Each structure stands twice: as C-alpha cells, then as structure tokens.
Amino acid sequence: MRPIGTRLTRGLALLAAAVVATSVLALTPPAASASARPAAPAAVDARVRPAADLSQFRAGNIISDAVFTNSSTMSASQVQTFLQSKVSACRSGYVCLKDFQQSTPNKSADRYCNGYSGSSGESAATIIAKVAQSCGINPQVLVVMLQKEQGLVLDTWPVGAQYAAAMGQACPDTAPCDPSFAGFFAQVYGGARQMKIYLEGVYFTWYAPGRTWNILYNPNEACGSSPVYIENAATSALYYYTPYQPNAAALAAGYGTGNSCSAYGNRNFFNFFTDWFGSTQVSGGSDASLAVAYGGNQVYLVMSGTKYHVVSSLDLAALTSRLGSFRWVSASLLDGIKTGPDVTRYVHDPRTGTLYLLDTDGTKHRLPTAAAVASYGYAFGSFVNIPASLADAFTTGAEVSDIFTPYGSGDVYRMTDSGKRHVWDSLALAYAFGGRPAYIATMEPASSDRLPEGATLFAPNSLVRAQSENDVYLTTSTGTIVHIPSFGLAADFGARRYSVVTDAALSRSTRTATGLTPFVSCGGTVRVLDGASLRSVNGADTGGVTPTPLQQGECDAFPATAGSPAVSAPLLVQGSDGAVYTLDRGSARHVLRYADLVALNGSRPLQIVSWSDAALQAVGIGAPYLPDGAFVSFRGKPEVYRLTGGSLHQVRAFSTLLALGNGAVPPIATLPASSQADFTIGAPLLTESVDFVQFAGAGEVYRYQDGALRHVLSYATLVALGGGQLPSILTLDPGFRSAYTIGADIP
User: Fold this and answer.
1) What is the pTM of this model?
2) How do the residues of the chain divide into helix, strand and coil, expressed in percent and rounded to 5?
3) How far is residue 139 from each of residues 10, 166, 271, 285, measured CA to CA in Å?
4) Mean pLDDT highest for which of 279-283, 627-631, 634-638?
5) Residue 17 has pLDDT above 60, yes or no
6) How far apart are the C-alpha atoms of 324 and 275, rounded to whole Å?
7) How far is it, in rounded angstroms, from Cα 61 to Cα 280?
8) Which H or E element spans position 601?
9) Is 354 exposed, middle or buried (0-12, 13-18, 19+ CB in 10 A)?
10) Are the C-beta atoms of residues 485 and 459 closer than 8 Å to each other?
C-alpha cells in the first residue's frame, strides 16, 4: 500500500473527460459539491496564458532541485498580488483563494520544517509564503500544487471540500482522506513537509534519483509503463506525490484531455509552473526570470536585483525558451528593482569570458570574433553578463557561423564579404556548411535587411532553368552561371541534377560571356575534358576553341583526373566511335591516316583525350584533317585538289600534278563526296605557259606564265600564242583574282 502522503491525481480513470475551470485539470470537484456545480467548460481559461512547450517536458527531470527548493522567489505580498491577478472578482456567496483567511496553529520545528508561528486571520498568501520559508519549498511550487490538485488558484466559486483537501495531502486514490490533515493550513504545511520527506529519500526510495524506474501512465496498470531515469530528488518527490507520467496523448493535448490511459498531474504541474513562473530548470527568483508589470507591456529580465529591458521579440523568444513565459508582478515591485541596460540575446558568461548568442531553441552559441558579433548586428560592448544558472540552462551548440535565418522567416542565407546570398535548397545548404556543424543561427530581420543581397546560392555544378526561360545554366560557387549547349556536355562535367527555379532566383546571377565548352579556364589555368574528368593543358593553345572563363574556386566542383600529366598542343581527341580528331581553328577535324596522326603527335608519347559525342558536337566537326600539300579527290568526281593554306586548289593538268609530285603521281586521298562541303575551295592551280584565264564579268584574257597572270593585250597576240588558233580560256570566279600575282602585260 502506498504511504498516506502519496497523492494520486484524482479522477483520472473515472473522469478523463471532465476538466475543471481552465480545461487543464483532469479533476472534478469533491463529490459533496458535485451536484452544486455544472460541468466544467472546455475552453482554456485566458488567465492561464498558455505558453509551455510540452516538447520540453522531461519525465526524468520535471523540475530542478534548485528551483523546487528556492523558498525566496515570492514574498507574501507577491503571492497575494499573483492570486489577485488570476481572480479579479469572486462569485457571490463564495470565498476565492485570494480572499481566504484562516487562524493558524503553532507548529514545532523538526528535521523537515522550522516550525510555524500561528496567528488569527492569516491570508492564504501569508500561509503559503510562511510555509515555504519554514520548509524550504519554493512558494511557486505550493501555488501550482494548489491549482493542479483542486483548481483553487483560478476557481471563482470554490467550495469547502476543495479547501479541506487543498494540496491533496494524505488523500490517496485508494482510500478516504486522513481527517487529521483536513483544512487549508494543514494541507499546505503537511504537503510541504511531506515534500521535504520525499526529498530526503530515506523512507521513500521507489523513485530514488540516479536510477531508472518503470513509471506507470495511469492507475490502470493495463495502460502500461515505460522506463524513466530519475535525474534529481525534486522529480522523485513529484512522482511520490503523483506516481504517473503523462503518455503521448496527454502531452499532445497541451492543457486538454488525452485518452483513457492519460494521467495529467505531473504534466499539469509542468504546464502551470512554466506558464506562471518560467522555466522549471532555472530559478525564477534570485537568478533570472521574466517579468511584466500589471497593465504594462514591457518585458524585463530580472537578475540579481537588477531588471533589464528585453529589446525585441526575438530576444524574448530566446529567453523564454529556457526561462518560460513572463510572470505578472505589481508595478511598484518592478519599479523598486534597479534598472540595468537593455538586454538582447547577445550575452556574456563572466566565468569563462565567452560571448554567446542565445537562440530560440534553448541553445547558446559562441561568437568567435568581433566581426561575427558585428555581422549579427550587435555593438561589441552591448552584451549583458548573465548568471551561471541562466548560462547553464542553455545547451551549448556549434559556434555562430555565416549561415543564418531572419527571425520569423523560412529563408536561409549565407553571409559574404559584400552581403548575403539566399540558400536555394537543402543541397545548397549542405554545400554552404561544408562539413561544419549544421547550425543555422537566427538573426534580427532588421540586421538581415541591412545586408545587400547577392546571387542566389545554388549547389555548385547543378543545372538550373528560370521558369520563364528555355536556356539551362550550370551553376558555380560564386553565383556565376554558364549556359550549356546540351545536357550531355553538362553530364561530362558531372552536372546531372536539374531543377527549375524562379526568375528572381536567377536574376542576380552573372552569366559568362562564353557558354560551356570542353575547355575551361580556371583562374588562368586551362583544363580540358578527358572522359568524365579534367586535365590541365600546357600553354594556351586550345586549337581555336574558346575556353569557358571561370575563377579558380568555381572549378573546384568539377571532377579532376588526379595525377594525370598535362596535355599540350596539338590536342588530339578520340570520340566514342574510336575516330581521332585534331582541333584546328575551333573545330574537330577527323585525322584520316595513321601517318598523319603520328606526324601531328610528334616525338612525345601519344596524347589522346576522350570526348563524348556531346563534347564533339559542342565544338563542331569540321573538314577531315589533311596535312598542308596533300592531294585529295572526292568519290565519284574526277577533279584532284591540292590542300594549301587550308583551302583546296584544283590541279588543272596532269603535267602539273606530275610536276608537284616531283615527276610521279603523288598519293591522293579519296574522301566521301559529302566531305567536299567541309572545305574551302580556293583558286585552281594553273599550268605554266599553257593556261589562259578570264575572270567572269571581265573581258581581259591572261596567260599564266612565270608564276603570274600576264594580260594579253591583243586578239592577234592571243591567236599567235595559241599556235594560230584561239586557245581554250578558263573562266574563273572574280573572287580568285586576288589569289594570283598579276605580271607584266604581253605586248
């Protein structure tokens, strides 16, 4: 059987749906008065001002020992002011807690309490404060217990039975209340003394701290239990008093009811204490608390006898994450406290000299440099020293970095030397962290607004397209974007992730003048694609292909071939079909003959890089490669040409062909007829002293002699030169005129 002091939350199994006064207590009034009171309303009483975050409820540490035993948090007058703030007027014919008075007896001191000097007509507030001092229990704890057990703090028409069992002391669920503990004073004094007995941990060891216990969810054992590691004596005392933990449904319900297996006593204790007095982990008395004067709207952080005005909603959110909601106090009480400077969440721990930024999730983060302080909008010397208890209440997180989110915004930014860059998505965020702890600091919106916004930060080497455009771009680390000619070429650079973004997101990016090619210039160093990686190029000769200009850091996201030697001109590339090309005048030219390939490569070890079809198409495939002076014909056509100066020149006569071949027919490469369109056709090669030439549209006739065209001045001379008859005259395009030397006239 549980000891007489064990108090089980009343009515849990029988009255799970009944909620007294504020929809927060899973209690009903005593049976004697049940017929006199209507069903409780379901709405949360506005006087509660719900703020407790039940995600912070820790079953093993409901309240710290320091807070539980801090008997100096409230004087009798402060308790009275608090009670009056909760009930402004009592229903006619009833006595509310703020107006309750009782003559109290004397109590002798013992090992648990320092006794009590009784008096006639003592108020409930006086009894609470005097008992707290005598037994070393936080008066705020006693106030909360009075509410969670019988709803007395908020009740506007309490009945006698509620005062008789005010603290639930000596009222086990399994038996009637002990009449020797009946009455308000006996309940408060007896309950506080019982808490000290529990804290001592001599007679009661079921929930002793430092061990793990299976704690039930409900008096109905069929509802189950779960292991809880009890961290401190105060939490064990609460379990002796109410030996159930809230289940998930109870926690999810806030102040409401969960399910048939829910218990609410310890949940309600956490809720009321946090909403009325602040954090259950940091003392709201001499260490730190948040306070607002009745009728006022300024929130103050009260620490060590000094009050500090809380500047902004972000600062308040950070402080309430550990201190809990502010409490209402009288204006005279607040006016009597010395005023310090404004306080922000930029604070200083004097024990270590560390500057911290407090965040809204209850964490603190070191500001490593003065520049970091300034970047978040704070003057270096504007910090406030905070006590150890407040500093320790915040969990230490990663150092403040350049990644932040404006308070109240879902956007994330990265600070730069010139401003900020909006982080587009989770991949961009992972890149921005660069292996650092993933902490996103919260920044004041005004401080964020002062930072000029630069290019959107995308994950480097990704592909993006604006909603209103068709062009696709490759992203870089600096915000520069490169137009891609094809997805295939982008894939060669390792870019395969593609997304459509807003026009605004792309509008601040700088577009390179040159689109993506198989060559990139990385801060002056040229690299060329080789398969799915890059190799350095010696010198600047890229065969006429313009490299994509990038900064050195912008190339770091591209795959590189580790340890591969650099390649040099002339550059030879091999396509997926095995064909080898040389790069010449900005295009890829198929090397037809192995001998030409060897000649191009020279005495160096054979250097060939691999290109995909997409890379070849990006450069463009030009005419097949032939060495200067080579002879060529096209399949199905009789003409023979000589390649000189990059152009084909028709050899007009067999004798000329023999002469050019040093008395023999030279090797002639036969190309597909379609290849002729890839070449520039130049002026024909004329035969010395044989060919006569006329340019279309002009009447002059020339004889090719001594390597020049000589104008034949008369018809008679032309006939004479033709052996007595008019010779054959070759009509050429006027554009070829400049290809020949014009010599002296023939008289």
Assistant:
1) 0.56
2) 30, 25, 50
3) 22, 15, 16, 11
4) 634-638
5) no
6) 7
7) 9
8) helix 594-601
9) middle
10) no
DSSP at 674: G
Is pLDDT of 591 > 70?
yes
Count the Cβ atoms, other than its own, within 10 Å of residue 251.
17
User: Comparing 42 with 189, which gets the higher pLDDT?
Assistant: 189
Where along the chain do the CATH 3.30.2390.20 domains lie?
A: 289-400
SS3 assignment, position 738: helix
Question: 231: which residues sit within 8 A by CB, 6+ positions away?
Answer: 58, 60, 61, 209, 210
Q: Where are the beta strands (DSSP E) in 563-687?
A: 567-568, 572-574, 580-584, 587-590, 609-610, 631-634, 640-644, 647-650, 668-671, 680-681
- Each residue of 432-462: pLDDT tens digit? 988 888 899 999 999 999 999 999 999 999 9
Say if strands 572-574 and 580-584 run parallel, antiparallel, or are unpaired. antiparallel
CA dist 534 and 493 (Å) reads: 8
Average pLDDT on 2-31 reads 28
CB 571, CB 606: distance < 8 Å? no
Whole-number percent of the chain with pLDDT over 90: 46
DSSP 139-151: HHHHHHHHHHHH-
Judged against a pLDDT cut of 90, whether residue 62 lies above it is answered with: yes
Q: Helices 124-135 and 139-150, interaxial angle, to 10°? A: 120
Tell me whether the omega of the peptide bond preceding residue 624 falls within 30 degrees of 0, making it cis: no
Average pLDDT, the chain: 85
In order, the DSSP letters of 526-548 are EEEEETTEEEEEESS--TTPPPE
pLDDT > 50? residue 595 = yes
| Residue 303 DSSP SS3 | strand
- Joined tokens for residue 619: 């450069």
Contacts 24+ apart (CB under 8 A), 47-50: 47/22, 47/85, 47/86, 47/87, 47/154, 48/22, 48/24, 48/154, 48/255, 48/272, 48/275, 49/275, 49/325, 50/254, 50/255, 50/271, 50/275
Query: Rounded CA gap, 497 and 119, in Å?
Result: 80
Calpha distance 697→300 (Å, rounded):
100
Question: Which residues are bridge partners to 280 per DSSP?
Answer: none
* Residue in 158, 159, 161 with CA at minimum distance from that of residue 183: 161
Cα–Cα distance for residue pair 641/631, rounded to 1 Å:
6
**β-strand pairing of 609-610 with 680-681:** unpaired
For 242-300, where are the alpha helices, taking DSSP H only? 248-252, 265-277
- Beta strands 101-102 and 419-422 are unpaired
List the structure tokens of 340. 């310090």
Q: Which residues contact 369 (CB under 8 A, 6 or more apart)?
A: none
On the 0-12 / 13-18 / 19+ scale of CB atoms within 10 A, 17 is: exposed
> 350 or 289: which carries more pLDDT confidence?
350
Torsion, Cα of 36, 39, 42, 45 (10° steps): 0
Whole-number Å distance between alpha carbons of 613 and 587: 13
CA distance 465 to 484: 11
Burial class (CB in 10 A: 0-12, 13-18, 19+), 39: exposed
May I ask the CATH architecture of the domain 289-400? 2-Layer Sandwich (3.30)
Q: For 122-136, give the DSSP string.
A: EEHHHHHHHHHHHHT
* Confidence bin at 50 (pLDDT 50/70/90): low
Q: What is the residue-wise DSSP string for 190-228?
A: HHHHHHHHHHHTSS--TT-TTSEEEEESSSSGGG-EEEE
Residue 44: is its pLDDT beyond 70?
A: no
CA 731 to the chain's CA centroid: 75
